[in-house]
Amino acid sequence: MNTPPHTTPPHTTTPDTATGPQPSAEPEPVFSVRGLWKVFGPKADRVPADKELGALGAAELRERTGCTAAVRDVSFDVRKGEVFVVMGLSGSGKSTLVRCLTRLVEPTSGTISIDGEDVLSMDTGRLRELRRHRAAMVFQHFGLLPHRTVLDNIAYGLEIQGVGRGERRDRAAEFVTKVGLDGLEHRRPGQLSGGQQQRVGLARALAVDPEVLLFDEPFSALDPLIRRDMQEEVVRLHQEEGRTMVFITHDLNEALKLGDRIALMRDGRIVQLGTPEEIVGAPADDYVRDFVRDVPREQVLTVRSAMRPALIGESQAGPALVPSATVHEAIEAVARTGENARVVEDGRCLGVVDRAGLLGVVAGIPAGTGKAVA
């Protein structure tokens, strides 16, 4: 997502490997997942318990055991207020993974906690509370009730919670406005476009005020223009509310646009977890490299990747950019002014980007190496 060169994008996070002063202690993650497996088939629990079986490829595992390992030994944390994207092709295990977080699908082994509470040990009552109040799901298929109006569909989750009719309709009306459906609150789903129906589903999830929003490929059935509008709607809502989100998608551009961090899955495993800049700028292996090959690097990488030390006199001249500005923004600034751009943070010049450095990033040549990225 393009942002003005002098402002920090609200959904940008510092890479785990960043240098410089760091907080003394990380806050408790919202979701913490360790060694998670989901195996379908007979005697599924033997697969994660046996290293030899767990190491088998999908075809050989099915042949030997009749089992399919949809999620294999996955570990990650979801931080408060971030958009955590799980991305992968069809069959990679991403949708199974997100359903495991609230036990819509029961994990085979591993641990899951929310705010430090063990999800796998929750009884029926606690699990119901988790799904109704703490983590709301937005699915690809809208699941709207055809006989109810937009307003009453949005209020449905509140009705399940036992909120009174007047209060729940008042709260639903707030979210009609928040997702841009003013004037449509008395229509029924059959009178709405696909994008409008998805907005109703989003508003229904937001209305119950969950701690975490879980999105399972919610926009994949929409046409490209409506899909882009809905992506921008998610970005806007996240900027306004700072709500924690876990977003599942098979679309790399969607992942790069929405994600603070991205977990890229293949055959049930996470093959790389990092910021969009880390995924595009430093692919972990050939699979990831092929995935990001056609991504415009200048739209994702920041000016830190093109920066060099300032020479005498350069720290006071030229347009100023924040460190999180993209290379694309820097190219615009340098082209517009004809001067090198300064990277400035808290009034201090961190370095300079010039034409050679910017062209090197676009060409895939790491700063100072003279060698193109394979």
Automatic annotation (TrEMBL):
Belongs to the ABC transporter superfamily. One of its GO terms (molecular function) is ATP binding. SUPFAM superfamilies: P-loop containing nucleoside triphosphate hydrolases (SSF52540). This is Glycine/betaine ABC transporter ATP-binding protein. It comes from Streptomyces nojiriensis. Residues 1-23 have a biased composition (Low complexity). Residues 1-29 are annotated as: Disordered. Residues 56-292 form the ABC transporter domain. Pfam families: ABC_tran (PF00005). InterPro entries: AAA+_ATPase, ABC_osmolyte_uptake_ATP-bind, ABC_transporter-like_ATP-bd, ABC_transporter-like_CS, Gly-betaine_transp_ATP-bd, P-loop_NTPase. The keyword Transport applies. Keywords: ATP-binding, Nucleotide-binding, Transport.
